[in-house]
Amino acid sequence: MGDPILTTVDWARAQFALTAMYHWIFVPLTLGLSFLIAFFESIYVKTGNEEWKKLTKFWMTLFGINFAIGVATGIILEFQFGTNWSNYSWMVGDIFGAPLAIEGIFAFFLEATFFAVMFFGWHRVSKGFHLFSTWMVAVGSNLSAVWILVANGWMQFPTGMEFNPDTARFEMHNFWEVALSPVAVHKFTHTTSSAFLLASLFVVGISALFLLQERHQKMAKRSMIVAAVFGFLASVFVGFTGDEAAYNVAQRQPMKLAAMEGLYVGQEKAPVVAMGVINAGKKPGDDQPAFYQEIKVPGLLSLLANRDPNSFVPGINDLVFGNAERNIIGAEQRMITGRVALAELAHYKDAKAKGDEEEAAAALSIFNQHKEDLGYGYLNNPAEAAPPVATTFYSFHIMVALGTMFPMIFLLVLYFAFKGTLEYQRWLNLLCFFSIFLGYVAQEAGWVVAEVGRQPWAIQGLLPVGVASTNIAAGNVQTTFFMFLTLFTALLLAEIRIMVKQIKIGPEE
Amino acid sequence: MVIGRSLWKIIAIKLFIMFAVLKLFFFPNYLTTNFNTEHDRAEHVLDNLTRPPSAR
Ligand code: HEM
């Protein structure tokens, strides 16, 4: 506190986190429910049974509510780039600006056309074309998430680009390296599969409520079976893609991985903490215990990180202070290299301004040798390279624990559905209903792991958040923070109110 | 359909608040508002990038 620039950054981060997390309440349901609706409608078209049409229309109404209220909430994140994060947006604008705009326009037209048919075309187009439109809405919505996730992946693992010190911009030299970077791929697969999972929990949960209320039981059981099958398959995929995500994090953001497991001292056969109470007051390098209580599974973290249970996983202390024995260069050493890069960038700029090309070329050459650690040059203290450990640790463990529980719920639903006793399992139906909320908790926790775990970086290793942001008064950002809080809370309340009303009305019988 | 009407109303109010209020009055693009040329914008960002930590 006290430092006005820091405070502006804090507010800018809080504002971004608030809007991103609210935006993310709407998105995964859209991504996943669109496919479930396409499945329901496909069954209707295949069987010709009008009950499936009514069922499809009911879920489509809930989808419509979520879509109408959530649509365009993501644009607010883009407003913030230009105002609060102007240095960052300038640096990457050339690469991400145009594709994001193209994607936005493409998605808009695709969605506008097929949405219109899906919602209003039941009596106006053939059954086949209507079904095709519903599928296109599902495919289009999911595709429209691609580029923003590629952009996020690039921030976590900047590849395929070159920094141009004359324009202060990153320039793309390999499109495919950016678009198909392993981080971008796991972002997309993990995000979409977890969205399918969330939407399945939503359908299973609302249907379970109908069973508890003894209303619309036939429709509820049908919906539950389809959603439980889809949800179970999605859960398995979430596990695989989550494992891939953890592997990529270990290879490219080892500090995030160490924070996810509260691992301060690196070790071979590194354990996963199955359950633990972390010491939130611990700082890198001090001799406080990392955990007050913990239950560990030895070797599991090494397996997750390197596909080898005996391998060495670096801890926070190794990554902050270095570990010569293991050939790990710590933030302390990187700060020295980073400061050389920073000084030579300034030197290059001055030499260019003076018109001294020879001096500029010499400065640029030294800059290029040290630029990998540029971001570390902005840190005041090597411990700043570590993210908030407790938040990262708990959000990761909550996500994984829920990710382990959800497939079991889907299996239980299927088991009792095939036994024909689903409507009598009060406890299971209550659990299903409550799991809608847990699904959202897992979603938000996932983003907290990804984003809090990569602090202090806006662009991994190159640009800390404090340099990415604009030097504007904290008050401005604070005001808009509260405006967003009000707007989004109003939207969320509207969503819940309208949905509850529609669920009370239920499907047409 | 009553629900359709309320949803359209929500969409309209939301878009109005977002574009006519927030974007217009609270979210100017910092670099385009404060600098006239691409060159000046690049200079400004470079100035920010090359300020050492002690001067922040
Ligand atoms: C079952 C075990 C799971 C594992 C091992 C796992 C692993 C991970 C990892 C390592 C990340 C961070 C990726 C990064 O920073 O690049 C992540 C992010 C995320 N997770 Fe999970 N996860 C699991 C389950 C779930 C579940 C159940 C959900 C939601 C229903 C979920 C939703 C997310 C989301 C939304 C993100 C942020 C986007 C991303 O970075 O991909 N995860 N997960």
What's the overall average pLDDT of chain B, rounded? Answer: 86
Number of strands of chain A: 8
How many H/I helical runs of chain A? 18
Largest interface, C-beta within 8 A: A-B, 49 and 30 residues
> Which sheet architecture does the biggest sheet of chain A show?
2 strands, antiparallel
Helical content class of chain A:
over 70%
Q: Identify the bound ligands.
A: protoporphyrin IX containing FE
* SS class of chain A: mainly alpha
Helix content of chain B: over 70%
Q: Radius of gyration of chain A over alpha carbons?
A: 25 Å
User: Regions of chain B with pLDDT < 50 over 5+ consecutive residues?
Assistant: none
Assembly level: heterodimer
- The helix/strand series of chain A, from N terminus to C terminus, equals HHHHHHEEHHHHEEEHEHHHHHEEHH
Radius of gyration of chain B: 20 Å
Overall geometry of chain B comes to elongated
Element-level helix/strand string of chain B? HHH
Query: What is the rounded distance between the termini of chain A?
Result: 60 Å
Shape annotation of chain A = globular
Query: Structural class of the helices, strands and pairings of chain B?
Result: mainly alpha
Bin the strand percentage of chain A.
5-15%
